[in-house]
Design brief:
By secondary structure, this protein is mostly helical. It has helices at about 20-30, 45-50, 55-70, 75-85, 90-100, 105-125, 145-150, 160-170, 180-205, 210-230, 245-250; strands at about 5-10, 10-15. A hairpin with a 2-residue loop joins strand 1 (about 5-10) and strand 2. The chain is globular and about 50 Å long.
Length: about 260
């Protein structure tokens, strides 16, 4: 029996195997080669317009973005896409991918979703799924037909959908995702976002490293409630309605000086 770490919530114990948790931590790593560091998701434009000026305003902005955007859209999609990939329900996956595409309100936000999705698919293709040892002869990575299906999604696999496949590959193929594992997946996705956005604030405001860590702490404090909200949403309750963010993103496309792609 594998050793497990116990995740406790509301008086229940839900075991998540160490191997699964480590894989999910890997997916949250800023070292994952998907290019997330190159996007600010409108934060740089908010700074340019004077809406974000210091640590407090940056922290408030990102917490609002987590609650009003991420929790209502991408996290809710991820919660549905993981079980869809597990049961190889390609029609459901395509439906969710189309929703993500259709709700990206600007060219650069759509570019981010598609580019990061493609990059993750490429990483999944190249990583050593057979547990080979670097520097020693190895066999080819284990074939996963879902990866081919993901790469073929038109016009591109989006970031939440590709991430959901990466999560599904971490979980047992012969059993539905347990609530504890699904929640850990959403934690991984959200922490990766939070860390990238805190780093974007450090670079663009600019702020010191200690301020960035305080921003990250404020986001961590907000993440559990955001995940609760995302997990409770039905298909008809998802939404992507952030008009100020969309306007700022559109302005950012022609902003004179910028560090980030969004």
């Amino acid at each position: 029996m594998p050793r497990v770490l116990t995740h406790r919530r509301r008086g229940t114990a839900s075991p998540v195997p160490d191997a699964t948790r480590l894989q999910l931590m890997w997916l949250a790593s800023p070292a994952l080669p998907v290019g997330g560091f190159s996007y600010s998701e409108g934060l740089e434009a908010a700074i340019d317009q004077g809406l974000v000026q210091d640590e407090t305003s940056a922290s408030n902005w990102l917490r609002d973005q987590l609650r009003l955007s991420l929790a209502r859209a991408d996290l809710a999609v991820l919660a549905r896409a993981v079980p869809a990939w597990q049961r190889a329900d390609l029609a459901r996956v395509a439906e969710l991918n189309n929703w993500v595409i259709q709700t990206r309100e600007t060219a650069e936000l759509r570019l981010q979703a598609e580019q990061m999705g493609r990059s993750l698919v490429e990483w999944l293709r190249n990583r050593r799924l057979d547990g080979g040892v670097p520097g020693q002869p190895s066999t080819a990575p284990l074939a996963d037909p879902r990866l081919t299906a993901c790469a073929a999604l038109p016009p591109a696999p989006t970031w939440p959908i590709a991430f959901a496949l990466a999560v599904a590959q971490c979980l047992p193929a012969d059993a539905p995702a347990q609530p504890s594992s699904l929640r850990e997946a959403l934690v991984s996705f959200t922490f990766g976002w939070a860390e990238n956005m805190a780093q974007a604030a450090i670079k663009a405001v600019p702020l010191g490293q200690s301020a960035g860590q305080r921003i990250l702490q404020s986001l961590i404090d907000t993440i559990p409630a955001a995940i609760d909200h995302a997990l409770a949403l039905g298909d008809g309750e998802r939404q992507a309605f952030t008009p100020m963010l969309a306007i700022l993103s559109s302005q950012h496309e022609t902003q004179y000086s910028r560090l980030f792609r969004s």
